[in-house]
Amino acid sequence: MKPVRKYSLLLALSLAISACGEAPLDRKRSQNETDSTLISTANTKAPLSIDYEKFTLPNGLRVIVHEDHKAPIVSVGVWYHVGSKDEKPGRTGFAHLFEHLMFNGSENYNDEYFKPFERAGATGMNGTTWLDRTNYFETVPKNALDMALWMESDRMGHLLGVITREKLDVQRGVVQNEKRQGQNQPYGKVWERMQKAIFPAGHPYSWTTIGSMEDLNAATIEDVHEWFKQYYGAANTVLVLAGDIDVETAKDKVNHYFGDIPAGPPLIKKKAWIAKREQSTREQMFDRVAQPRLYKVWNTPNLAHKDAKAIALAASILGDGKNSRLYERLVYRDQIATNVSVGLHEFELSSIFPITADAKPGVKLAEVEAAIKEELQRFLKEGPSADELARVNMNEYAALVRNLEQVGGWSGKGVLLARGELYLNNPNAYLDALGDKQKITAEQVRAAARKWLSSGDYNLEVLPFPEYSVAKSGADRSKLPETGTFPSVPFPKLQTTKLSNGLRVVLAERHAVPIVDIQLQFDAGYAADQGNKLGTSSYAMSMLKEGTNKWDALEISAREEMLGARISASADIDTSTVSLNTLKNNLDDSVALFADIVMHPAFSEDEIERKRTRWIADIQQEKTRPVQMALRSLPPLLYGEGHAYSVPFTGSGTEASIQSLNRDDLVGYHQTWLRPDNATLIAVGDITLEALTQKLEKHFADWAAPEHPLLQKKLTEVAHPQQANIYLIDKPGAEQSIIIGGLLAPSEKIVERDALHMMNDIFGGTFTARLNMNLREDKHWAYGAYSFMTGAKGQQPLMIYAPVQTDKTSESLVELYTELRAYISTKPAQESELQKIKEKRINELPGSFETIKAVSSAISGMITYDRPLDYMDSYANTIHNIDLPTIHKMALNTIKPEQFTWVIVGDKRKIEAGISALNIGPIIELNHAGQPIEKTSIN
């Protein structure tokens, strides 16, 4: 189902790289200079496993039960062993289309599937489809488990009676909009072309999971019935229950709800078909992208193959992290690429091994490819070093340890158990693989790489489509010209303390897994760029890990990986944060590295220049992505010139500001804002306050506040515009129009902030809110439509987000205005809507703070917005006591339909006339940098 969430607007930036010709780094350097103690640490790991019991019902349903009683929640995962590989030619995309239909009601609950789950406070709820499987999952409070099992079993056993032609048509439209939304992104059409090219005709992986538009249009009710009867039987399914449940209870409940569901027919199971190629092939594609990109792809062994683990290690060594072979050569040393990665995708029939690289502006893809080939040949000749194997093994181990904290969601224990059972008949298969990989030798990795990566690469070059223009007038067509003369050519108790240097510390103890998470949060962020060069905050934070007075960037990365730690630094609108997530056993060394990064960044001129080109390339990428075009343009229009928030919400600055940024700017930012009297350290995890204080005092003892006073950001109040305005950004050939509307709302610090957000939840903040039900479920013009508030200390934007099909742009604007006006007049929030949101917010509390990261994020919000540290203690009562008049008041005071500012990114030729005819307000065209093309309005 994959509904769009409010945080999905800031879409991840596309991978980028370039290439050069310097001599490659000597790989021996890394092993000789790596601390031998760290290598020993990385090679010493306790085995991981998940306790479980497995049983099978008489109808063939396999059930796995894992007990975890730390929170009163249960994760439910239903995994059907069917995916797009099981489709017939001419009916591609059907597995995914059917997944959508599973959310449209069953014979005994013919309504939106999400409704009872939202009321019950379900978290981590969704459904997904891929090549080999379709899964549905949710985490519910234990008291709602019967409801969840009833719902899952009802759609497994009692679905076909309510599937109508109308429902099929609606979900067909939703899926087609999902396909358009994906293809509307830069490089969005690559995988469809790639899968067809790398697998032979008729191979089950030769088409994408989302399918073709023609095949989706051809799907019939008869196809629905056939698919359900063929693949959605109990014997083709794995059910996982993980959390606060015991095995006997699980047996009783599963028998009660699923025992009467038919097993389904005998199935023909497809076996491994790797389809290794021997010849190198090449294709070229043009797209509206900022940087040329190279995909170099091999077909490699399926996940059960004896070489699969060795190939996975090779992929990590070649392309995972700063110290990977390809990143170190192309991005760090030669500086011919802005990024490079190896994204191994492991499946049942075959795996896909792509190296992806974006050329640095001005660098030819041929130069990038030559460097990749050289590093690959070096690897095939020499194999990996001992410290490389130790590093990538520790990276995977640490990632899985973190996953073991959570019972459900996208990657928790329930997912690991289900995948292991479904694919390999062993629920602990993915954890067992860690030990197997530890035993694989460098020679085994080299041999597997030589076998599978020496030939048969498919190369796809994606090149920027030039910006063309059409003349206002043409040739005289009344006569043939003369030729003339021819030319010549759940929330824990918070503990607080202060260090001797005055740094405030807040701790929440969580002992479920041996992990400690630390956030050092500064009152800074993009707003601190006011009066300075835009992007300074984000750039300075990104430089902290690029070297200190003690370690260079690669040494920091190597130590981080050997410790199994993750250190990051970033900025948002109000705060700048340096984070550490590490294994408890390595805490002392990890905090030492963390403190060095915070206190002693080198801001090396070489590293500043190394990053600058990649940063500017990312800004150029933002200007090709519809969502980010709008998010760069909208804030300056809302806040006006000179306001601290009048900056691109991507935080990246402009090409000009980044080009002019120098070391003094970054050092000045660090000295001005990153100081102990402007910070709070938030720690969550397996540690006591006494032990934490000792570690922090040891490593932060020399960190003192400077003598000069702390600066204060000026967040002035901004009035609403007198009328609505529409800003249009032309994206010729766009598959969709991106509509983003903004209006300034109250600060996140107001006492009524919970009522403010609940008011928005009813309108557009949840899947079943009014906006999404209108544009997605009723009209099926969009894959998702939402409203949200970004959060800010000053006035925050209330934003509406609706990516819609191009031919429904003006009609969608009409619907948005209809919903806005009705919400504050003829159709205000109803008691039933408020009650649904109350139940959702209160009932989701048991699962909301299962992970360390979730707890840390909640504390961060308390610190940022000056909430009391016991805020969560009374949260449920606060939500319960919010009444309908309060919601109506918040709506009337906040929503001003006639004063919205709209940014629309789409094909101007197709949408401008329809928008203009609505007479909403002046239409002003912006270029991709957000600057007006004309001073006067179009209408």
TrEMBL record:
Residue stretches making up the Peptidase M16 C-terminal domain: 219-392, 660-839
Signal peptide (from-to): 1-23
Keywords: Signal
Stretches assigned to the Peptidase M16 N-terminal domain: 62-193, 504-631
Keyword check for Signal: yes
Superkingdom assignment: Bacteria
InterPro entries associated with the record: Metalloenz_LuxS/M16, MPP/UQCRC_Complex, Pept_M16_N, Peptidase_M16_C
Name of one Pfam family that matches: Peptidase_M16
Name listed for the protein in its UniProt record: M16 family metallopeptidase
Organism, as annotated: Microbulbifer echini
